[in-house]
Amino acid sequence: MEKIQERRGDRLPAWARALPRRRILAAVAVVVLVVVIAVSCGGGAGGRADVPVVEGAPDAGVSGVRAPSTTTGETLRVVSAEIDSLDPQRSYLPGVWNLMRLYTRTLVTYSSEPGRTDELVPDLATDLGTPSEDGLSWTFTLREGVRFETGRPITSRDVKYGIERSFASDVIVGGPTYVVDLFDVPGNEYAGPYQDEAADKLGLPTIETPDDRTIVFRLRAPQRDLPFVLALPSSSPVPIGNDSGAGYGADPVSSGPYAVTSVDQAAGILLERNPQWDPATDDVRTALPDRVVVRTGLNAVERDQALLAGSADVDITGAGVHSATTARLDADDDRPLRDRIDDTTTGSLRLLALPTDVAPMTDPHCRAAVAASVDRAAVQEQLGGGVNAVRRSVLWPRSLDGGPEDPDPGPDLSAARASLEACGMPDGFSTVLAVADTPAGVRVAEEIAAQLAEVGIQADVRPLDATSFYATDVGNPDSVAANGYGIILATSTADFPTPGSFLAPLVDGRSIRSVGNTNYARFDDPAVSGLVDAARAAGETAAWREVVSAVDAAAAYVPLAETRIQLLAGQRLRNAVVMQPYSGYDLATAGVR
User: Fold this and answer.
1) What is the CA angle 337-341-344, rounded to 5?
2) What is the pTM of this model?
3) Which residue in 379, 385, 399 sits closest to 323, CA to CA?
4) Phi/psi at 449 (nearest 5 deg)?
5) Partner of 575 at 20 to 30 A CA spacing, among 185, 340, 538, 564?
6) How far is CA 44 from the centre of its chain?
7) Do the beta carbons of residue 138 and residue 211 sit within 8 Å?
8) Longest Cα pair distance anywhere in the chain, in angstroms?
9) Beta strand pairing status for 207-211 and 214-218?
10) Residue 477, Ramachandran bin (φ over 0: left; ψ between -120 and 50: alpha; else beta)
11) Pairing of the two strands 75-79 and 314-315
12) CB under 8 Å to 306, separation ≥6 — which residues?
């Protein structure tokens, strides 16, 4: 599903402004937090902007550790755009998921080992789970000695209850719903844990908890990606006695090394050590800082300025530095700033979707004409060149291992004209090119339209409101058909780093839905859906390459470029590792000087 990383806000949301102070010293903590920020920001002549990063080098955190350190103490200062929710079942922003690694734990989680952050490791569970021989069930055993911040032991029932919350679609909104697709029973749908207790004594029947440390998941079909779903914060445990429903994000109960102790509109979010966390039960988190301060609602330039000035240590949005900052980095002859940069691709693939139910894209030859006309090098330039984009001609992000070889072809206008002849429109045709109304998106759309015009295809660029583009405009098949959107410029990002997570929402015909549709091409081929089932059962990249090959032959999608970003490390940031799935530095291991 598309992750909209450009969301911004100029203040904390209403839930944060209304946060109750549940700890006795919370009011004092806010005052202390303001003092901490004032002192740590420095500012002017008293700041630390002149202190260089030790053991720093370009890309030091991509495959290694940036400024290794095991020193504990001090305050980690984090900057972010808007926080959608602190409720682990209601957030759908990867930067917030990164933050949640500090106060939520899941059965399995992403590794903090450099170069392997896209791999899973045990967290609350003792291992990565045991699937049955037919792949229809998975069994996990919880570690001993894991506790909530309240001191109560975390049980299998707490994990089940956390997952059950996502089924209450009228109360718990905004977060991922993979668990609903995986565990709901057609014809006997589960309505979530907030319904009448008399009607829900056992809860979700497809998740069993035979004892406090054992949890068993029953599936309708084999799903090798299940552990990645269980690594999402939406699969974290929630104690039923502390659940306040829609308001839980104002006071989430910690299972990790830190707890949210206060949220203040001016001072930000404060996380302090959770004394109930036992490092002996946690092989992932190092919990080096004494506290974590999160300043939210900052735009890209403000976040970059904070990192450059030394008043922030890490930006968790996953958007990378702003283009204005990139220009400053390019002009940095002495390299101190360059040495603080980690360059990485994000897995976000910009592509053209050609709706197969909108004429003339109903004809595969007409779709092939569009594909053959595209000049990816020119698209890359419109996206900011090689610094901000990597050309991609296969439906497989470079950040995912095992993909097909990328031939990176240039435009072939002769082939495009031949395809137009084959689809019965030798002089070309007219269509509408829908695009989210953002500067970069419109630039790329206009470039694509100019390229198509060379073979007679007239594409009317139609900028649409970016806030509703994916939700209701191109996410509604009826709207696409009614408006004649024959080409859609979209960006697709997997929620976890597996081929299935990226491909299935785009190409499985059974994923087409009336609201929030992500199969933008309305591609519905039973043979391809069968290949998807086979790939899910096999869990092998070779099987997913067969899916890509079949979709490529149909020309329903035209991959263009994968987003590349530059992460800027704060001057005090230590022990930083680039977390590939979240396109940022892993907060679970970060420390400060």
Assistant:
1) 160
2) 0.85
3) 385
4) -60, -40
5) 564
6) 36
7) no
8) 76
9) antiparallel
10) alpha
11) parallel
12) 79, 295, 298, 312, 315
CA distance 138 to 120: 16
Amino acid sitting at position 74: E
For residue 237, give both structure tokens: 């445990």
Beta carbons of 419 and 369 less than 8 angstroms apart = yes
* Element holding 527 (H helix, E strand): helix 526-538
* 461, two tokens: 């660029």
Quick one: the chain helix, strand, coil %, rounded to 5? 30, 20, 50
Tokens of 36: 């901490």
CA 267, chain centre distance (Å): 26
Q: Provide the pLDDT for residue 55.
A: 53
d(CA 105, CA 73): 22
Dihedral sign for Cα 7, 11, 13, 14, please.
negative
**Distance separating alpha carbons of residues 147 and 449, to the nearest angstrom:** 57
Query: 282-292, pLDDT tens digit by residue?
Result: 999 999 999 99
Closest C-alpha to 498, from 134, 211, 227? 227
What is the SS3 assignment for 39? helix
590 has a pLDDT exceeding 70: yes
- Reported as half-sphere exposure (CB side, CA atoms, 13 A), residue 199 has a value of 9
Distance CA 526, CA 588 (A): 43
Q: What tokens were used for 294?
A: 């999160």
Residue 519: both structure tokens together: 């199969």
Q: Which two tokens stand for residue 497?
A: 């780093």
Structure token pair of residue 164:
């059950």
In the structure encoding, which two tokens stand for residue 165, read together?
Answer: 């919350």
Which of 349, 361, 441 minimizes the C-alpha distance to 393? 349
- What counts of helices (H) and strands (E) characterise the chain? 16, 21
* Secondary structure (DSSP) of 292-331: EEEE-S--HHHHHHHHHHTS-SEE-SS----HHHHHHHHT
**Whole-number Å distance between alpha carbons of 509 and 362:** 15
Structural tokens at position 350: 């910009």
For residues 17 and 354, which has the higher predicted lDDT (pLDDT)? Answer: 354
CB atoms within 10 A of CB 347: 25
Report the run of H or E that residue 214 belongs to, with start and end: strand 214-218
**CB atoms < 10 A from the CB of 52, how many?**
11
Q: Which among 238, 135, 142 has a CA at the least distance from the CA of 182? A: 135
For the segment 332-369, what is each residue's pLDDT rounded down to a tens digit?
A: 665 778 889 999 999 999 999 999 999 999 999 999 99
Query: Measured between alpha carbons, how far is 79 from 338 in angstroms, rounded to an integer?
Result: 20
Q: Can you tell me the distance from the alpha carbon of 137 to that of 207, in angstroms, rounded to the nearest whole number?
A: 10
pLDDT of 3 > 60? The answer is no
